[in-house]
Every structure is written in structure tokens, then in C-alpha cells.
Amino acid sequence: MRAFHYAAAALMLSASTGAMAQTADRIWTGGTIITMEDDAMRAEAIAEDDGRIIAVGTRAEVMKLKGKGTQVIDLKGRTLLPGFVDAHGHVFLGGLQALAANMLAAPDGDVTDIPAMIQTLKEWQAANPDVVAKGKMIIGFGYDNATLAEQRHPTREELDQVSTEYPVLVIHQSAHIGTVNSKMLELMGYNADTKDPEGGVIQRKPGNTEPNGTLEETAFFAAIPMVLKNAGPEGLKTFVREGSKLWARFGYTTAQEGRAIPNVANVIRAVGAEGGLAIDVAVYPDVLVDRDYIKANQSDTYAGRVRIAGAKLTIDGSPQGFTAWRDKPYYDPVGNYPEGYSGYAAANAEQVFDAVKWAAENDIQLLTHSNGERASDLLVAALAGAQARFPGMKARRPVLIHGQFLREDQMDSFKDLGVIPSLFPMHTFYWGDWHLEHTVGPQEGQNISPTGWARERGMIFTSHHDAPVAFPDSMRVLDATVTRRSRGKQVVVGPDQRVDVITALKAMTIWPAYQHFEEASKGSLKVGKLADFVILTGDPTAVDPEALDTLRVAETIKEGRTVYAMPAGRRAEAPPADISPMLHALVAGGPGHRHEDGSECPGDAAIALAALFAGADGRQ
């Protein structure tokens, strides 16, 4: 069988007219090469010239392209694959994990309880006195009440132990919830008489209406601009550059900014125009903020490695944070929730139908964040109505983002509507136990991120990381998609939803390239495509599936050029060794953004943070 694959791969080489007359810039050989092309999945060598693949096949055939100036690179037994394509993430915010105190639990951090959280914040404050003084902020990112020993959010009084002089904000790992100290509540004007904002909740102390410090959705988003309002133009550019570097360290040659406002999109484009991006970035601005901007700037081609690829719509919130909009009550929600609580919407039906209709009539690809069943019911209805009037919308490949809580009939509807499910299997690792015990329960929890349902219906799907909700850790994405093993109790969450390694790799390469309308140039190793590669320390198809997360990205190559090489002795996912330039760049001041009519912009955590770093003075 392997001989057949190599023979077929050799045909890929000879099929390129005049290929043998070329001389390669670089040839890679000496290891495993996985092409993601079904008719020729394995190859012995691959050659590149001027950023494009000119040969894939046997070593003997490919080496015929070696000239005097050809660099022959020995893979030394490692594995080369197509560069990973980000199906959904927020590259602009990639620097947040380096900026903030690390509130993550193992394996990404050390916060196991609230005292450890308080101590980590104090240590971060002591280590960054200039940043705290200039930025007037103390911020932590990534805590998860599901992994804290107390099984709850911290309180304002506990964060007051860190500081009563400066505002303190700790952001939940979902990025849909945050907890603040008393100083922050005072600056925000939140008190016992403050009403909950539309689409959000100010949690209260038991028995009264005094805020306890924990804020959900829009109530939380309002905190962000006030905490980091001093971010300026160079700080914004630093985030873009550092975010793209972080993605490259995990093997991504195409990144996504999965929800932007025009200010943020323009910063990304400015960095690209300055030559500051080593990898491509596809940007999806918020369809509820500025549609004229999207329509005027949408493009199928990159300029400075950036393109406005379509639009983003958000219907609801976070599944693990109990803000996703369900069609039934949550199983056993942890917190002060009323009987029968089922979450809530972030956008109303009129907004959703209007946004989907606008995308259809303007031939704009639409990515829609929908986690709960009621949110997906609304999306299905809006898409069906729009496609009845504009049948061409199906060809624009509408995308479901997340889809954590789905019914099988909804997957059937998405297939009929031509929707590509971009799913989030890493939830089974980070929050598998939580889903089984608290969000949807032991039965429905088996179908979190239902990749198996998609394959049963002959649908493609894509897998994403939603960074900075989690690190853009490609091997963690791969591992979770294949094994679905939870990090806490080590149980398999939904055995029937597991897929094989090649399918999981397709969901990170050729299928997200298709999702982005870039399958002709990315996603597989084929003559004529871009020489976008990732080199792994081992062969994911040869190791025990339970060891997939031990593989590392050794090198990332964009159009033939190395953009990341793992330093000796450092884990690939390690944060930058010196984050002080980034931190200092983020305390310089910048302009603001609101709707054109001056109203505040609703939305989810990603847009809130994006709006913050654009200097927004209203909710985003």
C-alpha cells in the first residue's frame, strides 16, 4: 500500500508541465511526509521554488530537481505536513496570555484554588511594577471555576487582597465572564442599584443586590476598556505581531482574527503593510458593528498577508460559563441561578435575521458563533429564510462556530443548508468533566462538539482552539479531536464522536483551507500550492493516540521560509521569554470606536477585548 502511495505521489510530480526543467530552491527529505491528498497520502520528498511546491513524490524523482544552489534539508526522521490553517481564533488577542498573569490550571498553569490565584496576581504585580503604575491595571487571564478547589468564582473581597489602589480584573478562561475587585466596581459605577445590562448579568451577593464582583457577558465586557484604556497604536501593533508569532510557534501558517471591529482590522492591515506578519491572517469583522466596512473591504486575495475574509455574527455566549442559550435547563449549574435557567441570547431574532439576510444579498461569507440549541435553532431559521430568497448563499460556505450543544436534527439542517461546522473538541479536554456533571449532564455531554455526527452525514468539519480562550496548541487540538479524554477524571467524553488521526488532521489543514475558500493554494501538499509546511517531532499517525499531545512543532515554514524553529530545550508552547517590550508598548494611549450612531456595541469577549485595544469607550 505504501508503494502505491509513493507511486501516486510521483505522478503528482510528473503531472506538472515542465517541472523537471526547474531547479528547486529547497528540497525536504529524510522523514515522513503526509500530504493530506487521499490518492497520495505519503511521499518521500518535497521540493519548493519561489514559495510554491514544484514536486511531491519519491526521493529519486524529487532529487532530480536539485541544482547547484538547492538547499537539501534532512528531516532527520521528523514528520512534515501542510501548515495548519486556523479555523477559528483571535490572533489579535494572542498577546493577552503573555500580558496577563497566568490564571490557568494544569497543564497550562498552576492555579488550583483561589489562594493560589491571589498569590499569582501579587507575584505578577511585584514583577511588573512599571507596567502596573503606567497602565494602572492588574489583570489575570484564564481562571476556571470548574478547576478551582472551591468550585466557584473569586469574590470582590478576595481580589481586594491583591489591591485596593488599582482595579483588578481576572478573566475567565471562556473569556465571557470576569471577576473584578471593589475598585473596579467603583470605577464602573456598578452598585446595588445598577440594573443588569441587556445581554449580561451582574452577579449579586446572597440575600441582597450588592455586586459580588463576578460579571457575565456584556456586564463583563464593559470592564475591559476601563482597565486597559491606555493601550495605544504601537501597543495594538505589538499584539498583532506577537499573536502571529504565537500561532506560528504552533504550526499555523494561516491565522484568523475571528471577530474584529474596523479599528482592529485596520491595525492588522497596517502591521501587514509594514511587513510585520510572517503568516497570513484572515479577518472577520463583526456584522453588527459596521457592515459598510465589511462590504467595502472584503477580498479573496491577501495584501501584506491580510485579507478581510467575511463577517462574524454572535448569537449567544459560553457553554461552560452557563451563558450559552439552551433549549432546556442546564443540568446542574454551579452558582446562583433560578430554577429552569437555560442561558440567554447575545443578539435578538431581528438582529440575527437581518444580519444573515444582509450577508446573503451581499455575497459575504458569514461565520456565526452559536453554542446552545436555541441559538442554533435561530441560526437555522435565519439561514433557511435567507437561502430561500438568495440561493447563492449556500455557495458562500456559511460556518457554524463552536456548536457545543447540538441536536442531531440541527446537524441534519446544517447539512441541508451547506453549513460547515467549525467545532471545538478541545472542550472535551478542558471542560469534559464539567459538561458531564454540570452543563448538560452525563448523557447529552457525550455529544459535545459532535464531530462523529458530522462524519456520519458525510460532512466535513473543522477543529479550532478559539485562542486566547486556550493556547493555539495544535497538538492539543489534534489530541482532543482523536481521544476526547478529559484532563481531570481522564474519562472519554463521547466515544462515538471520536475520529481517526487522518480525519482530525484534515480538520486542521485541507478542510479549514476549504472553509476559507483557499483550498486551491493551501491545506495539502500538491504541486502548485503554497509551500506552507509544519514539521512535527514525530508522526501523529504512528504514535499511540494517547500520546498525540506529547508531539511538538519543531518548525513552521511559510512559502518555503522558516518562520519558527523550536529552540533547543524549550517547549514549543512556552510564552515569550521577555514580555516587557509588549507590556510597556501597551500603556501608550489610543483612539476610540463606537457605532456610527454613537450607540454602544454589543458582543462577546473577543470583540470586547478587541474594542479595548482599539481604545473603545463603550461596550463591544
Per-chain topology:
Blueprint (H helix, E strand, L loop, with lengths): L1 H13 L11 E9 L7 E8 L2 E6 L1 H4 L8 E4 L4 E4 L1 E2 L10 H4 L1 E2 L11 H14 L1 H7 L2 E6 L12 H5 L7 E5 L4 E4 L1 H7 L11 E5 L6 E6 H5 L1 H5 L5 H17 L2 E9 L1 H12 L6 E6 L5 H7 L8 E3 L2 E4 L34 H13 L4 E5 L2 H17 L9 E4 L5 H9 L3 E4 L2 H5 L1 H8 L1 H4 L6 H6 L5 E2 L10 H10 L17 H6 L3 H6 L17 E4 L16 E6 L2 E5 L14 H6 L19 H9 L7
Parallel strand pairs: 1-4, 1-5, 6-13, 7-8, 8-9, 13-14, 14-15, 16-17, 17-18, 18-19, 19-20
Antiparallel strand pairs: 1-2, 2-3, 5-21, 9-10, 10-12, 11-12, 21-22, 22-23
Helix pairs in contact: 10-11, 13-14
Brief summary of the model shown:
By secondary structure, the protein is α/β, with parallel strands linked by helices. The chain contains 24 helices and 23 strands. The N and C termini lie far apart (54 Å).
